[in-house]
Design a protein that fits this description.
- The chain is elongated, with a radius of gyration of 22 Å.
- Helices cover 32% and strands 20% of the residues.
- The protein is built from seven helices and nine strands, in the order E-H-E-E-E-H-E-H-E-H-E-H-H-E-E-H.
- The strands form three sheets. Strands 2-1-6-5-7 form a five-stranded parallel beta sheet, sandwiched between helices. Strands 3-4 form a two-stranded antiparallel sheet.
- Helix 3 links the parallel strand 5 and strand 6.
- It is of the alpha/beta class.
- The model has no long low-confidence stretch (mean pLDDT 94).
- Bound molecules: 6-chloroguanine.
- The site of 6-chloroguanine has 13 residues, from strand 5, strand 7 and helix 5.
Length: 222
């Protein structure tokens, strides 16, 4: 999978070289391109935002700069993801869908967002365009949101996870991502024992207990 991100803060993407994502890159499973929006600025001040038509607080990112940044990236293989708190909520099924994509292009808006004509333009040219939010709260920009999406999506690409069994167990779960509590050595820590069933060696009963625990957790999170 090829992943491009356009941002005024390329440094936000430094963590991509760590951990699973770094390894996936080394193995050629994913390839990242991070692009500085400001390098596409058209005026002497390297300006990327301006005041909103119609008035109101804040600044809006200018379409011309975004067009110059996105045009060379977009092709028939591309899905353009515009990060905005007003977008469709990112969840595990959406991560599954994007994990089979060939090319994801993340447009990281700042300020009050990107001039809506950018979305309209790429839609009108028959590109696949998605406005996505990662949750019901407002971030300063789309950079962290795109990192969240990148991590959730790339770990679903075959070969990225060291142990594919982890994915199999996740999808075996009804909800796909709710889990039972986990324990490791020692058997007692600060007077708290590991649930006895897990030491029993009875795998049928353990599976049943874990399913019940996962449901209990799901209830508590409603
Ligand atoms: Cl994608 N962007 C911003 N700025 N805030 C958010 C978000 C995205 N998702 C949740 N809050």
């Amino acid at each position: 999978m090829k992943i491009d991100a356009v941002t005024i803060f390329p440094e936000y993407f430094a963590p991509l070289k760590l951990s699973l994502l770094g390894k996936a890159q080394g193995a050629g499973l994913v390839e990242f391109g991070i692009h500085d929006l400001r390098s596409f600025a058209t005026n002497v001040h390297n300006q990327v935002d301006d005041t909103p038509y119609g008035g109101g607080a804040g600044m809006v990112m200018m379409p011309e700069v975004w067009g110059k940044a996105l045009d060379p990236l977009m092709n028939s293989e591309s899905d353009l993801i515009i990060l905005t708190p007003a977008g469709k909520r990112f969840d595990q099924p959406m991560a599954q869908k994007f994990s089979t994509a060939a090319h994801l292009v993340y447009a990281c808006g700042r300020y009050e967002g990107i001039d809506d004509r950018v979305r309209q333009h790429y839609l009108s040219k028959n590109f696949r365009v998605h406005e996505v939010s990662i949750g019901d709260y407002v971030l300063g920009g789309g950079e962290v949101a795109s990192l969240v999406m990148i991590e959730a999506i790339t770990r679903l690409i075959p070969g990225v996870l060291g142990n594919p069994q982890s994915l199999a167990e996740e999808s075996h779960n009804e909800q796909g991502y709710l889990e039972y509590p986990n324990f490791t050595k020692p058997a007692t820590w600060r007077d708290i024992p590991v649930p006895e069933i897990l030491l029993s060696g009875n795998h049928g009963e353990i599976t049943k207990w874990r399913a019940a625990q996962a449901i209990e957790r799901a209830k508590n999170n409603l």
